[in-house]
Amino acid sequence: MSDETVKYLLSEDRIPKAWYNVQADLPVPMAPVLHPGTGQPVGPDDLAPLFPMACIGQEVSTERDIEIPEPVRQVYRQWRPAPLYRARRLEEALDTPAHIYYKYEGVSPSGSHKPNTAVAQAFYNANEGVKKLTTETGAGQWGSSLAYAGSIFGLEVDVYMVKVSYHQKPYRRALMEAYGARCVPSPSTETASGRAILEQDPDSNGSLGIAISEAVELAAQRDDTKYSLGSVLNHVLLHQTVIGIEAIEQMEMAGEQPDVVIGCAGGGSNFGGLAFPFVGKKIREGMDVRIVAVEPAACPTLTRGTFAYDFGDTAHLTPLVKMHTLGSSFMPPGFHAGGLRYHGMSPIVSHLLDQGLIEAVSHHQTGCFEAGATFARAEGIIPAPESTHAVKEAVDEALRCKAEGVQRNILFNLSGHGHFDMAAYTEFFGGNLEDRDYDAKALETALQGLPPVAAE
Ligand SMILES: *Cc1c(COP(=O)(O)O)cnc(C)c1O
Q1: Whose CA is nearest to atom 2 of ligand 1?
Q2: pLDDT mean across residues, the chain
Q3: What is residue 207's predicted lDDT score, i.e. its pLDDT?
Q4: 339 C-alpha vs ligand 1 centroid, how far in Å?
């Protein structure tokens, strides 16, 4: 057996056997999910039309370690453990005393962290006899990840893709079709939610909130069809914790501890995936670590949103969850990190911010692309536009270390590569990207439309 083979077997053995459930360690429990009709906490039966029982159980579980089913680990073997790199050339380029580490999730088949949960969700659905999954996608990363996972476990997958992305990102759509999924521009005429939007605005560009309404509506109508969400929900973030569990072990192998942990946050899943195992260490062992979520200045859910009960979608078909939200009718201005354009945020991430266990910052897109280009020139990897937000904060932190003359260890999540997003880089290099602010009036209106909730 060659040395390489031995190393391979060793590393494969390092794929975690259990996900980490941060709900087990929360000093204050989370607010319950509410039924929009009754205002009462939802039970498993309310969610059963949409999700498999295994995921519903995980949604509310307070067990710390949740076993990863062996068939899921078998699929993870293809790219996990994901590499942890020390960004030495970036450190040199920035002339910083900081040590910069990044966990690279772009090595998965679809090029981001999203298959970590897509594979688990497809497995649980197939295991419970489901034949078809519906979902939404913005930039296309989630749709292509679920399409990939569906092909492995023999599920049909229908993806409702935000119309503006459908036209802007034809290769993401082609990737979904290559995996055997059907990709429909949203709003579509296939659902009542889509038709209602088109009646008001035949040229609607669509939004994630609208696409979610379409996918949920279809799943609720059929017994053999369920809905799959790529971020936000507790079980989704649970599945992503393989990232942080591996990173803790890899940092130990490197002989260092991070002083700052950074992730970009759209719905919160890659951030939570890296951060939660460190949050657990912070709560249980008093680990001294700052944990920072980075969001786009044009869709500032954590830094400008309200922590309140809201719907997850535009047509108000979902249950009410307490989260940082900009209001379900909020439409962010156009910018390139499509995966960060959601009005809400993971309830757990929102809760941790509220409890002071994590921090949040926002950055404009041109600064992010600039940091992305600096990173690419030093490290050779093109970050996804979403991931450049984490890169930007890591670079800023490294420069603060330089200014203060102190050495700190920085760990960030490089959630995906940008190979399908080169049009955005082309615009950036051509000087055609601008920093657009959200419409403060529209935000105010959207927040005034938050549902009144008695239980608050
Ligand atoms: C989808 C996506 C994100 C944003 O989603 P989160 O749930 O916040 O992680 C970030 N980076 C990449 C590469 C993505 O595909």
Answers
A1: 339
A2: 94
A3: 86
A4: 5
Closest ligand 1 atom to the C-alpha of 141? 15
**Ligand 1 pocket test, candidate residues 165, 172, 264, most atoms within 8 A of CB:** 264
The CATH topology of domain 80-111+235-455 is: Rossmann fold (3.40.50)
Within 8 A by CB and 6+ apart from 243, the residues are 82, 103, 105, 113, 116, 270, 273, 274, 413
Taking the centre of ligand 1 as the mean of its atom positions, its distance from the CA of residue 115, in whole angstroms, is 11
Alpha helices in 27-114 (DSSP H): 44-47, 53-60, 70-76, 88-94
Instruction: Report CA 156 to chain centroid distance, whole Å.
Output: 23
Distance 270 CA to ligand 1 centre (A): 6
Tell me the CA–centroid distance for residue 161 and ligand 1, in Å.
15
Instruction: Give the Cα separation of 277 and 263 in Å (integer).
Output: 13
Residue of 102, 108, 141 with the most ligand 1 atoms within 8 Å of its CB, for mutation: 141
Confidence (pTM): 0.96
Q: d(Cα 205, Cα 305) in Å, to the nearest integer?
A: 23
Class of 28-69+114-233 in CATH: alpha beta
Query: Helix axis angle, 347-354 relative to 269-285, nearest 10°?
Result: 40
Give the domain ranges of the chain: 28-69+114-233, 80-111+235-455
Residue 387 Cα, ligand 1 centroid: separation in angstroms?
8
Domains 28-69+114-233 and 80-111+235-455 share a fold: yes
Q: Hey, what's the torsion of the CAs at 133, 139, 140, 141, to 10 degrees?
A: -100
Q: How many CA atoms lie within 13 A of 117 on its CB side?
A: 27
One DSSP character per residue, 375-399 reads: HHHHHS--B-TTTHHHHHHHHHHHH
How far is ligand 1, taken at its centre, from the CA of residue 455, in Å? 31
Residue in the structure block whose two tokens are 């298959």 = 115
pLDDT in tens, 262-319: 999 999 999 999 999 999 999 999 999 999 999 999 999 999 999 999 998 888 888 9
Can you list the residues of the chain whose pLDDT is less than 70? 1-10, 454-456
Q: Are 154 and 133 in contact (CB under 8 A)?
A: no
Pocket of ligand 1 (CB under 6 A): 112, 114, 141-142, 231, 264-271, 339-340, 384, 386-387, 415-416
Bridge partners, residue 100, by sequence: 410
Q: How high is the pLDDT of residue 5? A: 55
46-63 pLDDT tens trace: 999 999 999 999 999 999
Distance CA 344, CA 268 (A): 9
